[in-house]
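Try this one yourself first.
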């Protein structure tokens, strides 16, 4: 299971993601939809470890991956 809690991501003073939370259970298919600039790519980059959040946490199967580097997150089964 993937769990995102109160995720906040900033580019300098600009808040790109403002406190989103969601869960994706095993076997589920989820899509992110929204207008250009809504934060879809920033959300995916943060979950995959390419960006670090200013606040919040990301858990994969109960393990906090918020501060784990992207190359290690991939080996944990998140692709």
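Now uncover the answer:
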């Amino acid at each position: 299971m993937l769990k995102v809690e109160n995720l906040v991501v900033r580019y300098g003073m600009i808040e790109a993601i403002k406190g989103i939370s969601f869960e994706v259970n095993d076997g589920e298919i989820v899509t992110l939809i929204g207008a250009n600039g809504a934060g879809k790519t920033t959300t995916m980059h943060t979950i995959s470890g390419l960006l670090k959040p200013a606040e919040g946490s990301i858990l994969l199967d109960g393990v906090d991956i918020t501060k784990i580097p992207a190359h290690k997150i991939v080996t944990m089964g998140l692709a």
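Discussion: The chain has one domain: 2-75. The longest strand covers residues 14-24.
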